[in-house]
Amino acid sequence: xxxxxxxxxxxxLAGLLSKWGYQxxxxxxxxxxxxxxxxxxxPQLAILDxxxxxxxxxxxxxxxRASRPEPYTYxxxxxxxxxxxxxxxxxxxxxxxxxxxxxxxxxxxxxLRVGARILGLERxxxxxxxxxxxxxxxxxxxxxxxxxxxxxxxxQEVSRxxxxxxxxxxxxxxxxxxxxxxxxxxxxxGDQVIKELATKMVSPLRPKDSVGRFGAEQFLIVAPxxxxxxxxxxxERLRSKIANQTLVVEKSSLALxxxxxxxxxxxxxxxxxxxxREADSALRQAxxxxxxxxxxxxxxxxxxxxxx
Length: 308
Fold this sequence. Notes:
Structural class: alpha/beta
Largest sheet: 5 strands, parallel
Radius of gyration: 29 Å
Number of strands: 12
Order of helices and strands: EHEHEHEHEHHEHHEEHEEEHE
CATH superfamily of the largest domain: Reverse transcriptase/Diguanylate cyclase domain
CATH architecture of the largest domain: 2-Layer Sandwich
Distance between the termini: 49 Å
Strand order of the largest sheet: 2-1-3-4-5
CATH class of the largest domain: Alpha Beta
Shape: elongated
């Protein structure tokens, strides 16, 4: 983006930038420049004149830096001011570089290339940080939350439950006879089963619910503002959905089933560890009672079609 109230100079500059492969936008005052640079799709390279109507260049830069929009915008300040004090003022306002007017085209092009390289490094760093953060909180095989993260979410929701006085429920699911699948078809097939199940785990949940890989073939669902009966209904729907579908793995058709254990926390009276033990106990009861079923701790309410 070019921001300069001198229309002739700005159009000549735009012609140079177009020749160098840029796609310049032109605004003619500081107020327009601020508005454009604060948009979510703002240009990442900007050339601002110091003296403009509305807002001066340094004022625009201060506003942009104060709002910290992403992605970062590299700003080059054009100025006819030659004093060191003025140049320092521009840099302190947040300009990345400055160039004295009238500017030499070769020098301008070189400085813009520096800006482009810095933006490239910034994008690479941002991507690396986001990727690293995702890998730190999500299970690499399934893409759902990993064990540590889902347990952190559980603690947070228990605290909210205690503060707000509402119910929340937990569901632990486990693949029935998973060892037999691994032995018969290999561990790669077992991994594919886990990935497919993770996808199916997410589909019946509300946006505020969370699911994480709790163990090798176990998943934990944390459902805030959810009664025991609602959690039972959703767990049963999930169990039925998986039991009624055939999964093709390594060119073999597998009939899969899961068992599930459900527990409830009322008004934060039970902490997360206790609720986990209760859900795990219910899961073991489901296995003991023949697998491919849902069990719970406590008394479920009358049957309902409400889901989590």
